[in-house]
Amino acid sequence: MRTNLLMGKDEPLVVDKRSPMPMYYQIEEDLKQRMDTGEFRAGEMIPSERELSEHYDVSRMTVRQAMTNMVNDGYLYREKGKGTFVAEQKIEQPLQGMTSFTEDMKQRGMEASSRLIAFERQPATKEIAGKLALGEDADVFLVQRIRYADKKPMAVETTYLPASLLPELTEEIVQGSLYEYVENELNRTIEKATQMIEATVADDHQSKLLDVPEHSAVLLIERNSVLTDGTPFEVVKSAYRADRYKFISDIYR
Ligand code: 16G
């Protein structure tokens, strides 16, 4: 059990009871700061509710509220009968460059891998045909993959690709990098994409694939990508674990 949270008598009180900020919020901020400075590291157990309530001089209910919020936000995780632990830092994904999952992981020194859940050639639905600018009756490949970083599930990606553009696509190809195949085997140039991000919760299927409890927070990302000649080449709907990922963008004024 850690004891360094319990500070000396002359340390200033962390929770200001007269502040308009709720006390649970102040506790969350204090604990997050301790994680940032490395005082609490990933995998370490944090002190018990009783110790924390004594330390912050608040009720156990207030501590519990802070803990629950931090578990829901992915900063902490609970293990039944053991305690509450510090979670891994989230992956920070820049929103500027149009990189592939394989490239993203490589840049971080992590190992990318995939598990193929579905690989089918089928007629495009109206929605997908519209997004891929395909005519009626056109076929698409539906590819569903779990994407792993260092063997941990990060996202479930459901990709729709025009069969006419990638007629020789195989299961083997999509076990690796799709972008590498498009660029190096098909010799096409990927230009840009429109990307949308929405918050939601994992449904039954997603939660099993992502190895999270049902209704955990996930970020739904849809990417519609085109080649330099303007041809749409993929529609990807991905569910990213919100406890493992955060998206960062630089903005200018
Ligand atoms: C990223 C893209 C996805 C693309 C995939 C290709 C997002 C939200 N998604 O995961 O649209 O299909 O990379 O990765 O960024 P690959 O080349 O490793 O198969």
Would you write up a description of this structure?
- The chain is of the alpha+beta class.
- It folds into 2 domains: 23-86, Winged helix-like DNA-binding domain superfamily/Winged helix DNA-binding domain (Arc Repressor Mutant, subunit A, Orthogonal Bundle), CATH 1.10.10; 91-248, Chorismate lyase (3-Layer(aba) Sandwich), CATH 3.40.1410.10.
- 27% of the residues lie in helices and 33% in strands.
- It has 8 helices and 10 strands.
- It has a 6-stranded antiparallel β-sheet with strand order 4-5-6-9-8-7.
- Strand 5 and strand 6 (152-162) form a beta hairpin.
- The model has no long low-confidence stretch (mean pLDDT 92).
- 2-acetamido-2-deoxy-6-O-phosphono-alpha-D-glucopyranose binds next to helix 4, strand 6, helix 7, strand 8 and strand 9.
Quick structural overview:
Helix content is 27%, strand content 33%. The chain is of the alpha+beta class and 253 residues long. The chain has two domains: 23-86, Arc Repressor Mutant, subunit A (Orthogonal Bundle), CATH 1.10.10.10; 91-248, 3-Layer(aba) Sandwich (Chorismate lyase), CATH 3.40.1410.
